[in-house]
Amino acid sequence: MEWLVPFILTVITASTPLLLAASGELITEKSGVLNLGVEGMMLVGAIAGFAVTASSGSAILGIVAAVIAGVLMSLIFAFLTLTLMANQVATGLALTIFGIGFSALVGSKFVGFAIEPLPGLSIPGISAIPVVGPILFGQDFLVYLSIAAVFGVGWFLAKSRAGLVLKAVGDSHHSAHAIGYSVIKIRYLATMFGGAMAGLAGAYLSLSYTPMWAENMTAGRGWIALALVVFATWRPGRLLAGAYMFGLISVMQLHAQGAGIHVPSQFMSMLPYLATIIVLVIISSDRAKIRLNAPACIGQAFRPAH
Amino acid sequence: MVRLEPRRQHSQAMVYLSPVLAIFMTLVVGGIIFAFMGKNPFDALYTFFILPINNSYGISELFVKATPLVIIAVGLSLGFRANVWNIGAEGQLTMGAIFGGGLALYFHDSESAFLLPAMFVLGAIGGAFWAAIPALLRTKFNANEILTSLMLTYVATLFLSFLVHGPWRNPEGFNFPESRPFPDAGLLPIIYDGTRVHLGTAVAVFVVIAGWLLLSKSVIGFQLRVVGKAPQAARHVGFRQKRMVWFTLLLGGALAGLAGLFEVAGPIGQLQPSISPGYGFTAIIVAFLGRLHPVGILFGGLIMALTYLGGELAQITLGLPNAVTGLFQGILLFFLLACDVLTKYRIRFGSTAAKGRTA
C-alpha cells in the first residue's frame, strides 16, 4: 500500500490546475461568454508567476502577478468581443495564439532557472499523520484554494443574488438589460474572473507542479478545462469530480511503467486527450441535459437596443 | 464616449481596407515591442519584413512557406463560413503526412511513377479520415468540433512521435527518431531550379482557383455563403446543417492532409517527430486575413509566410527568440478582428448613447 499515498498526491496536483481554470471559465460561460483563450491565459499566467517569483524571490508576488496577467489577457478578449463585438470563437483562438507567443518570448530569458516550489502546509503533528496527514494537511495553498473556489462558485451561483443576475445575463441578455442590469459590465467582470483563475492555474503549473518554465508547458490543459465545463454541464459539483477524474487519467502514464505495464509512452500520453473526447461525446449526446444547463446566450454578442 | 452605430450595409471599402489597417497597426505595435526589447524598431522591422525577401531565393522561400498555409486556409475558410470550427488542421496535416509518407516508406525502393500520385491520394485520405472523426462526433453525438478536433491534434502528434521512435525508425540511421529518407519517386519535383519551390506550390494555386469557383459558382458554395450570413434563413430554406458539417470538415481535412504530405515529400523528405511549425494553426489566421475568400487567402498566406521567414532571420541576426513570430501572428489576428468592426459599424464620438439607458 505504500504506493497509494504518492499516487493520490500526484492525482491531486494534476487535478488542481484543471480545477482552477475550469471554475473560472464556468463563471465566464454562465454569463454567456465563451472564452476559448484559457490555454493562452494560463500560459501567460504561468510565465508571469514564474518570472516575478524568480526575480523577486517571493512566490506571493509571483501569484499576484499571475492573477494580474490573467486578468489583463481576459480584458483583451473582453474588449474585442464585448465592446467591439468581434466573434468570440475567433477571438479566443487569437488569445491562445498570442499567449503562446508572448509567454515564449518573455520566457526565453527564464529557461533553465530554478525556484523553490511553493511550500506545503505543515501543521506540527497533524501533517505527519500517516496517509491522511500528507494528503489532507500537507498541500500548498493553491490546492486548498482550488477546492474552495469550486465551493465558492457553487455557492455564488446557487445562493447569491449576484449569481442570479449573472445567470440571467447568460440566459437572456435582452431581458436582463430590460430589467436594468448592465449586461456588458457583468460580462466584463465574469470574463475577468475567468482570466484571474486561468492565471492562477498557470501559476500553479510553473510554481508548484513543475517549478520551472518551459515553452507551452500547459500542454493542452486549458482546452481540457474548457471540455470539463461541458462535462460538468455547467454545475460546479460535477466539475470537482471531473477534474479529479482527469487528474487520475493524466497521472496513469507516470505510474503505468512502475506497475509493469509496458505500453509505448506516447500511447499513455494520449489518454487525457482521448478521455476528453470520450466524455464530451457522452455528455453532449444527451441534448436535453445540455439544453437545460447551458447558458442560452453563450457566444452571442449583445448590443443594447436602447 | 465612443459608440458603435450599425451600418445599413456592410462597407465595401472597409472589407478591403480593414486587413491593411490591421497589418499597419501590427507593425506599429511590433515596433514598440522591439523597442522594449532594446532593439532599434526600424532595424528590427526591416529585418523582419523586408530583408527576407530582398533577393530571389528569399522570394522563392516565401512561396515554399506559403504553400501549406494557403492550401489549409482555403479548406478551413469554407468551414468557418458555415460556423464549422475545425481548429485541428495541424492534426489532419500530421495524419496526411503519416498516411502518404507511410506509403513512401513501404515502397522505399520503388521507382514507379505511380508512387507520388498514390501518396497524394493517401495524404488527402489521411487528413479527411482525421477530420471525419469530429464530423461524426458533431453530427451523431452533438460534440463540439472545436474541442474534439484540437484534442485529436495532440493524438496525431503523439502517434507520429511513436512511429518515428519505434516501428518506422530508419534501420540504417543512427538511432535518431527519423524515418528512412523517401525514395526519389516519392519526392515532389522542384518546379523552379535552384530553389525549393515544389509541385505543391502549383497545387496551392490550383486550390485557390478551385476554391473560388466552388464558392462563387456551385450550389454548395451558395449554401455556405447563406449559412454564414443568415443561419436562420438557411434553416428555414432547409439547407441541411449536417451535410454542411461533413462537407466542410472532410474537404478541410483532405486539404490539410495534402499540405502535410507536401511538407514531408517536399522540403523535409522523410518523417520526423516535428513536421510543421504550427502551419495548421497559422492557417486559421490566414483564413481571416484573407477574409475567408480564396483569393484573399493567397495574399494572406504570403504575408504570414513572411512572418516565419522574418522570425528565422531575426533569430539569427538580432538574437530575438523565435517566439516573436507567434506573437506577431496573435497580434495581427487581434487587430484583424478589431478592424472587422469597421465593416459592420460606424464609430461615432459623443455621449448621445447614454440617453435612454435605464441602468
Structure description:
The complex is a heterodimer of chains A (306) and B (359). With 306 residues, chain A is mostly helical. Chain A has a single domain (4-293), classed as Orthogonal Bundle (ABC transporter involved in vitamin B12 uptake, BtuC). Chain A is built from 13 helices and no strands. The radius of gyration of chain A is 19 Å and the shape is globular. Chain B has 359 residues and is mainly α. Chain B has a single domain (56-318), classed as ABC transporter involved in vitamin B12 uptake, BtuC, CATH 1.10.3470.10. In chain B, strands 1-2 form a two-stranded antiparallel ribbon. The longest helix of chain B has 28 residues, at 241-268. Residues 353-359 of chain B have low confidence and may be disordered. At the A-B interface, helix 4, helix 10 and helix 12 of A face helix 5, helix 6, helix 11 and helix 13 of B. Chain B: InterPro entries: ABC_transp_permease. Chain B: This is Sugar ABC transporter permease.
| Helical content band of chain B | 55-70%
Please tell me the total number of domains of chain A. 1
**General form of chain A:** globular
Helix content of chain A: over 70%
- Low-confidence region ranges of chain B: 353-359
Structural class of chain A: mainly alpha
Architecture (CATH level 2) name of chain B: Orthogonal Bundle
Euclidean distance between termini CA atoms of chain B: 16 Å
Radius of gyration of chain B: 22 Å
By secondary-structure content and strand pairing, the structural class of chain B works out as: mainly alpha
Let me know the largest β-sheet of chain B. Answer: 2 strands, antiparallel
